[in-house]
Amino acid sequence: MDSAVRQHRDRLPSVAIPCGDTSLWSVLKQVIGKELSKITMPIQFNEPLSFLQRLTEFMEYSYLLNKASEATDPAERMQYVASFAVSGLASNWLRLGKPFNPLLGETYQDERQDFRIISEQVSHHPPISAFHAESPAFRFYGDINPKIKFWGKSVEIQPKGIFTVELPKWNETYTWSNVSCYVHNIIVGKLWMEQYGTMEIINHSNGYRCELNFKPAGWYCRDLHRVEGFVLDSSKARRLFLYGKWTDFMKSTDIKSYDEYSTSSSNRGLNRSESSKESVTHTPRKMLAKLNSLTIGSFKHSADEANGSDDGHCPPEPPDGEIPKSSSTISLEIPNSTTLWIADPRPSYSAEYYNFTLFAMASNELPPPETGIKICPTDSRFRPDIRLMEEGQIEPAAQEKTRLEEKQRDARKARRNRKEKEEKARWFKPSVHPLTKQECWFYSGGFWETKEYQAINIF
Question: Is the pLDDT of residue 274 over 80?
Fold first, then answer.
């Protein structure tokens, strides 16, 4: 890890490339009924980062895990781990560009003052990205196998996979899964997104839990971005109440202050049960009734897919074409609250650069030679299509993107002809998580100790 703080770049070489006249709907209507994670999207809908680099953005607020390690009370440790889990989603807001799909064997590494992280694309079908971050105070690792569903008016991205945090000082292990992300206004209006669902963080060492409810914006947008939930001890007694917005901040307060606040006549409804349970089934048939130019038959496969989904529900949406704005009159400041996390403000020019945070702006820069940091040849920063796109060269970037995808397909076909199995991951291996009993990918070691990385020609 860096011994000194290095100054990172604060903008990209070129401003974002406009999408032009191409709409997301014009692409999606051609692939209704197909698994969208396998669809090649036009480069205009990308942002110049690999999904492996997007994964690393979970580390932007790694100081929360340091605070968790320093806390002596188990409820306080949980509140910081939970805030870290929420903070990892903050950079998603307004980021409607799709990251580049990593190539099999692609890696990404980052070394900061207080942590280092290695990620690798360990599987192509299904696409699985694994990562491992470490510091003296914590270990954070996991994998994501994104599933994408098209609901007619919105797209749902399900980040399948388990995240794990270990705090060696306390011999504690926490696990959770991220909530789904929904992109709305696919057909009409301006695109916008929300995170929706329940996130349960479990401390497997002492039985503490934190159940966080990411609320849907709903028709009146009262709960836009809202997150709230309780820290429970092993006997399921409430210890703390956490609340905030996944885009902005998280706070905590003691249960007595929460109860007094929530029962007061002026603030009744803080934890409205109807909001937490509010959901609707998005039926393309109802949506199509408004669109004379489309036919129900063209959506039949999509409707059947939706009805057979995990829960058959999407968050309710505001009227077509509108971008929600919070109109809540409910205060988000409970007496005796402690601020756990505040999102760093994005630069004023962020919208010109794909709405990147400052952390994201630096993701694709190569470290200066004087740092002595070695970058593996399979690192995302050596991908020519991403590099060309961030430089504003959209046509050459599209050509390189196509070349890399064809090269990967040809390599896969050659292995099949030789009756060889898919190449094994270099830095991770699959195994059953000892606590969740789910199959996960674990770091097998050796990456940081390697003196000379083997040159694998995937680009």
Answer: no
Q: For residue 406, what are the contacts with CB-CB under 8 A and spacing of at least 6?
A: none
Whole-number Å distance between alpha carbons of 199 and 83: 11
Q: Is 72 exposed, middle or buried (0-12, 13-18, 19+ CB in 10 A)?
A: exposed
Lowest mean pLDDT segment, chosen from 79-88, 239-248, 269-278, 383-392: 269-278
Cβ atoms of residues 288 and 294 within 8 Å: yes
In this prediction the pTM is 0.85
Q: Could you give the angle at the alpha carbon of 293 between the alpha carbons of 288 and 298, nearest 5°?
A: 60
- What digits encode the pLDDT tens for the residues 348-382? 999 999 999 999 999 999 998 888 888 999 999 99
Q: Cα–Cα distance between 373 and 354 in angstroms, integer?
A: 28
Cβ neighbours of residue 86 closer than 8 Å, sequence gap 6 or more = 199, 212, 227, 244, 246, 250, 341
Residue for token pair 């694994």: 130
Helices 74-87 and 63-70: crossing angle in degrees, nearest 10, is: 170
